Amino acid sequence: MAVDLPMIWAFLIAFAVFAYVVMDGFDLGIGILFPSLRAGKERDTAMNSVAPVWDGNETWLVLGGGGLFAAFPLAYAVVLPALYGPIIAMLLGLVFRGVAFEFRWRDPAHRPLWDMAFACGSVIAALAQGVTLGALLQGITVHGRSFGGGAFDWLTPFCLLAGVSLVIGYALLGSTWLLMKTEGDLREKARRMSFRFAIGTMACIAAVSLATPLLDPIYVQRWFAWPNVLYTAQVPLLVTIGAVAYFRALMRGAEQAPFFIALCLFGLSYVGLGISMYPDVVPGRITIWEAASPPSSQLFMLVGAGILIPIILAYTGYAYWVFRGKVGAEGYH
User: Which tens digits make up the pLDDT trace of 36-67?
Assistant: First the structure.
């Protein structure tokens, strides 16, 4: 039986990207929420809640980008030139975040400046990631085997909608993370923000879901053609059930459940993205198999991935286990 290596690598890259969204999403969300937190104890507590794990989350971003370059070089060669603007903005935002995270502790005289850099970097990185996703969905102009569009093709209303939606979604993850990890006034503030950002996230999911089929008839086919609709209809149904469960958990005073339900809502949205894109790596232009590198290269890399990914999962899980529980302003950093 032949092994479908391109499909395996597509799954691994999709897993790496989702792991990044899950693990760095609440981290970015903390930065997005930073201006709404009081300087001093509240901001210090929020920082300490992610200090032990934040710098390991980008591992998955590197794995996803590196995997795309190695396993699907044609897609990499097309996607990167089309998205240089938002990708460079994302990287600069992450750099600002990383520098500000460390310097706000070591340079207290300029802490307001570093706090602003942390917040701005978080918003820019999240917005750029959403714009990148929107640009992929709206389509990339391909001539032959290269990008054939303009430098600002990504600057459209749909891409900006996707960008703002991801900012709001990350803020939801950040607020539910604080609800789970903090106590006292900050926890109650996080509970209120969790309610507001959940409403915003649900509205954004609905808006993006309604706008996506208008981009290309192929999305209508993948979502609504018979018998596909019997399966795809389960996604919005599960999102509705998840939203009801989320608000019920908040109303009964739960602290951990809202965070994990929010992650499930992100997972369902990711499944919806997969339905829209499969089997393409560049929607409507290049399929997974057309973009794949030679089987010998993919097999060689798969051996390394089979060793490294379990190690990454193990040390990541161990870090989260060691630093479980509540955190205070004097916490881990």
Answer: 888 888 888 888 888 887 777 777 888 888 88
Joined together, the tokens standing for residue 190 give: 């996080």
Q: Residue 298 has which token pair? A: 């993919």
State the pLDDT confidence band at 179, using cuts at 50, 70 and 90.
Answer: very high
Query: Which of these, 234, 256, 257, lies nearest to 246 by C-alpha position?
Result: 257
**What are the angstrom distances between the C-alpha of 252 and each of 101, 130, 206, 247?**
34, 32, 26, 9
Q: Rounded to whole angstroms, how far apart are CA atoms 79 and 146?
A: 9
Summarize pLDDT for 223-259 with one digit per residue, the tens.
Answer: 888 888 888 889 999 999 999 999 999 998 888 899 9
Buried-exposed string 48-70: b where 16+ CB fall within 10 A, e elsewhere: bbbbbbbeebbbbbebbbebbeb
**Where in the chain does DSSP place strands (E)?**
142-143, 146-147, 280-282, 286-287
Residues 6+ apart with CB under 8 A from 28: 97, 122, 125, 126, 170, 174
Report yes or no: 93 and 100 within 8 Å, Cβ to Cβ.
no
Q: Which positions ≥6 away from 152 have C-beta within 8 Å?
A: 85
Evaluate the CA torsion angle 128, 132, 137, 140 in order and state its sign: positive
Of 137, 78, 128, 138, the residue nearest 269 (C-alpha): 137
CB 154 within 8 A of CB 12: no
Residues whose CB falls within 8 Å of the CB of residue 229, separated by 6 or more in sequence, listed in order = 223
Secondary structure (3-state) at 234: helix
- 325 burial (CB, 10 Å; 0-12 / 13-18 / 19+) is exposed
> Residue 137 has which token pair?
């969905």
Q: How many CB atoms are located within 10 Å of the residue 105 CB?
A: 14
Q: How far is CA 34 from CA 117, 167, 291, in A?
A: 10, 13, 41
Owner of token pair 């460390």: 102
Tally Cβ neighbours within 10 Å of residue 109: 6
